[in-house]
Amino acid sequence: MNIKEILDQESDQKRFMLGNEAAVRGVLESGVSLAATYPGTPSSEIGDILFNIAKDANIYFEFSSNEKVAIEVAAAAACSGLRTFSFMKHVGVNVAADSLMTAAYMGVEGSMLILVADDPSTFSSQNEQDTRHFARQANIPLFEPSNPQEIKDYIQYAYEISDKFDIPVIIRTTTRVSHMRAVVETGEYNKNTKTHGEYENIGLHVPVPEIARKMHEELVGKIAEIRKVSNTSPLNQIIDNDANVGIITSGGAYNYVADIVNKYDLNVNILKLGFTHPYPEDLVREFLENNKEVLVVEEVDPIHEIETQAIAGKYHINTNIHGKRDGTLPEIFEYTPDIIINAFENLGLFEVLKREANTPTLIPLPNRPATLCAGCPHRASFYAARQAIDSLNLDVESIHPSDIGCYTLGIAPPYNMANFLMSMGASVGASCGFSKATENQPIISFIGDSTFFHAGIPPLINAVHNKMKFTLVILDNRITAMTGGQTNPGIPIDGMGDEAPAISIEDLVKSIGIEFVETINPLNVNEMIQIYKDALEYDGVSVIIAKYPCNLINKTEIRSRNYIIQVDQDECIHCNKCIDKLACPSITLVDDKISIDQTCIKCGVCIDVCPVSAIKKEEVNQ
Amino acid sequence: MAYNIYICGIGGQGIIKTSIVIGETAIKEDYNVVMSEIHGMSQRGGVVSTELKIGDDKSPIIQDGTADILLAFEPVEALRALEKTNRHTVCVVNTAPIYPSTINQQDLDYPDIDEILEELTSKMDVVYSMDANKIATRAGHPLSMNMAMLGGACAVESFPLEINDIKDTMKENLPPKSIDVNYEAFKMGYESCKK
Q1: Which of A164, A251, A262, A449 could form a disulfide with A144 if both were Cys (CB 3.0 to 4.6 A apart)?
Q2: Domain named Pyruvate/ketoisovalerate oxidoreductase catalytic: which ranges (chain B) (predicted)?
Q3: pTM: predicted TM-score of the whole model, two decimal places
């Protein structure tokens, strides 16, 4: 469906919606006034859609500079009486955590929902942490929808809880729920009319120690009250089949359980949990008492399993509890129907279930690792860095801390330009550590424009103040590229699509006292190599701003390139430098002949790479 | 009922669009349908697959060995998906290879197409193979390859959706200026597998 349809759809319509589209529809049906995010897969599409419809929906929307800011914007607005929505990927919560913990103490006047998309199996993340820990640490109610329809419906329910108890709430999805498409029946959409609230409770939201103690007491009291609601919530249901084996499950994991139980006609009871923090103690106790064996099926960490064990211990219930901790289910990665079948067999309570899958092929298959796009300006930056480093003929390895974005792909040969990676902004902080801890190893680190605004500035201040020595390359491709092309503070457009002041990276870097600052178009690789060489000799923090737009947003210019790039076969000396050192996917070597295929976007970097000028531009008449 | 369709290929081949056309058609015909798609890193030249389940299943992941159709937009990707299939899975495969952009950095050569087809036919009783890229080019545009593949899927006897409904959904999802080319590619893909 097209984006506007999410907004224009009437009620009681069945539509094939992505989980993230259903989230937006849920936000619209709930009358949200303000939304803020920092893009992160698997939650990114929510922001892409809001960016397109915010004005029509009368919602204020922003791409905040990071997740902590997004939560602060949403919290203050919720304290002013508005209904607010913030959303992020799981690791974004780490950044937001400092304010999130206190937001729970402070409570809200309006209502506040945070949607967090976890990424089991790390399809596009650096770890597979479980957001449900945060809900427990912060004492924030948490919901786990299993499919797009539930995402939409739970959003409305979650706002009601937030409203009733004046507390922020979290919806936790996983990749397979956010990126699942399914039938969603729309509800009533009434265009939001409340664009402004009023901040009235001056002084009530200041958790100095004396007030913080009271706030914590109140929060614990709220959670005790909310536990009563989760015990009787329609989001938590027992599907009783009069069996003596029970499954406790939630979120995406429920789907696999339901399908396997249905397909093999297994006689089990199911407790499907949707409102999972506070954990519904009475309901789980009842379920434990009615089943001799209970299997807990959840993705990622054994959180419900441990809570269930605690309830069994508290009430001296003799039910055997199985899950991750006794090895019935794996402790890592997302689940699949086959993993659930294995778990049922591991329990020894069911016969071996019939399967007839083909075995994998024995033919060795080439891999398709993600690579930088043809003509990506990052490739030029990496190629030039590799050339500059190699020209030093060092007998030590150079160190290349990298960051979160497309340029993490610099890890691949032949560039090998990412050999240390932690989290957003950590390239700069880690460079400080390497600067102090190592002696003769050159350090060139890489960070993108959006990531620099997100978390790269404080560690760069640290680097200047503490007299570090390294080169930071800010790969300014004028967009937040990896997540699909969202705006950031360096772009003259804001989340509403309006004109906005663009923050100059160069001015910012100079203002903190960095003297070696060079801004260059990285497609000029020979100049780029020289700048790297100068930077490597510089005694201090040097910054290279490699500024050229991502292909995704540069289509007009690319289309206007009225020439093609070709290899002159008579002049080619078959040194293979373009293949081995630049490794652009448009350049192919077949039967000893190098050629450039139709995927080329004519960036022209290979022309400078060729040592004998055999790669040439040829004008074409259009 | 449960009818499982596993679609695989490379980013940029129109796999997600094809899957949405199938899913939206299923809704038109009052079926329940779930689908899984992976975004993110996979957009950068990597493998793309979607899993569609028409019927009463809740999870969007196809259990190993239970695909009813394997719709492979690229031959090597068909082999990578074998665990989703069983002997009765019907395979529709595009024989036009896409070499990995990193093939020059890998120790492996791209396998021979005949060897790939032989492997597929040794594991599945019914394999329809066609050069869908060529069909699409003949139909009017190489980018209509995905609709040629969809036509191939519709030629499979067990495929549960009506062609007229599929064509209506294509119209709702594809740009008006390319709809005739896409219809032509769809028809040629269908005919290539039907005979």
Answers
A1: A251
A2: 11-191
A3: 0.96
